[in-house]
Structure formats: C-alpha cells, structure tokens
Amino acid sequence: MRRLIQFSLLLIITLTLLSIISSGFAFEDSPPTVQQLTADGEPTLQDWFIQNGYTINVTADETGNETFKAGCYKMTVLAEFAAYAPLNNLSWYTVGSDQLNYLFYGENVTDDSVYMSTNESFGFCLGSPDEYFYTESSRNNDSEDHALVFLNPNTSGYIVAWEDLWGLGDQDYQDFVFAVLEPVTVKVCYCPRTLNLKSRGRWITAIIKLPKNYRGEDVNISSILLNGTVPADQDHYAIVNCGDLHLLIVKFDRKAVIELIKNSLGNTSCLCRHIHVSLTVTGRFLDGLPFKGTNCIRVIHYCHCCCCRCHACFFRR
What we know:
By secondary structure, this protein is mainly β. It contains 3 helices and 19 strands. Helix content is 13%, strand content 37%. A hairpin with a 2-residue loop joins strand 16 and strand 17. The N and C termini lie far apart (99 Å).
C-alpha cells in the first residue's frame, strides 16, 4: 500500500510539472527567444541585426547621414528581402549631379561586392519599379526618407538599409541592406619632396606605411592610384618588412604626375614660385579592404603675372 501511495504522489508531481511547462511558464534564467516577423513572414530589420551579430538599435542608432565623403569604398550586400528584388538596382551619384553610376542590378547574393572611387561627396540611389529613391530625402518625389544609415559596429564604415516602396510602404527597411566599407588610413610620404614642374626625372616615389596586421604582399598593386588618376607602375615596387614596420614603396610616372598638377592649375598663374599640393594614394588589399593616404609636396613653378592668388583646385592645401 505504501509503495502504491508513493507511486501515486510521484505521478501527480510529474503531471503537475508537465502541465506548468506546457502552459508556457518560463524560468527567469532561461528567457524564450522570440523572432519578430513582418507581415510577409520576413525578419524585421532589428531582428536581422541581432541574428547577424550587429549591436545596432534601429530606433536609437540611425545617424541621419544622407551623403558620404570622397574616397575609395567597398560595397557589400548583406541582405535583400524584397518582392521587387529582381527589378531593383543600386547606384551612387555625386552631390548636385543627376548622373547615376550603377553598382548592383537585380536580385543579389549575400556578400556580393563592388568598389567605387570619387573625389567628391556622394550619395546612393535605389531604383525600384515604384520610383528612384535617394539617400538625400529632399530629392525623393514622395519627400520620404527611404534609407536608414547606421555606423557599422564591426568595422569601419556604414550599413545602409532601404525601403523600396513609394510613401515608405510597409516601412520594414530591409528590402536592401548593404555595408559601405570606408578606406583604412595609411601614412605616405613622397620622394622628391620638392617637385620642379620642368624636371625630367622618371619617377615620383611613394613610401606607404601599412597598418598593423598588413604587409606589402597583401596589397593589390594594380589597384593603387595617385589622386584617382595616375596608376602605380606594376613592375617597379618594393616591399619592406622589418619587425612591426611594414612598408610598400611604389612609383608613379613623373610626367603623368606633372601633367596632373598642371591640369589642376589650369591657365591660372601667380607670383608665388612655390606652392604646396596635396597628393592622395588609394588602393585595396587583397581581401578587398580599401586604403587611402594623403601628404603634401612642394611644387616649383614659373609664372610672372600680376595675379596674386594660386588656384590649385582640389590639390590646394
């Protein structure tokens, strides 16, 4: 009889525990994971960030950025949840211009990447069957903000999330999500430090100090440009690795650099025999990460006119 009573009590306790668990009771130290879904059964932008390791609060962390500074950038597709995906396209444009430079067409695959480089501030434009929508909301015909811009917490740059429907539609902002990777800043110095525009030397040499964890062997030499125009010579470069010091030495055609500087000055002359111009080296590592470094050189030029102002365009210090 005693065993029967013990068995009955054990059965009652077991059934009670099962009833509590099935009723949805949750222990405080084991909270349930709830995935928020849109009306279409897709993850919300906030939930997508959480699932993919981005510590971003959609409500609080939007930067309000509508344009981006000049430079060399890498764009990578992170996600695309849009019925319009096969018809959508993404492009970039310089501020104040109507020309669109296309980056992605149609439905894309996660981690698809493209590169762009510009010497002017720029924005992005998402084209959908509804309309073309810009990061500058003032350019949108529905006057709505179709792009949310966040700082990327995992690397340098931004994450841009789009709504591709007129009037913001379902306002899910996960129709097209991509990363804008900013260039890593490198230190650079030039030789000669003083350039005579009438000189006939062969090279302008750039000595680039690479960031930690990168060596000269990690650089795509063919990607290196001076002021976005003059390419580095792919047959004349040197790599120096000495302890923690990693240098890449590249050469640019001197005649091409002199022409670049002369074209920036145009037909304007001045009484100043010496001016300083800013030269910027851009390039990419083999893993796709862009880099940029800027320094000035002293330029000797000969002019004898009454104008007292130097006009060095974007080179002027």
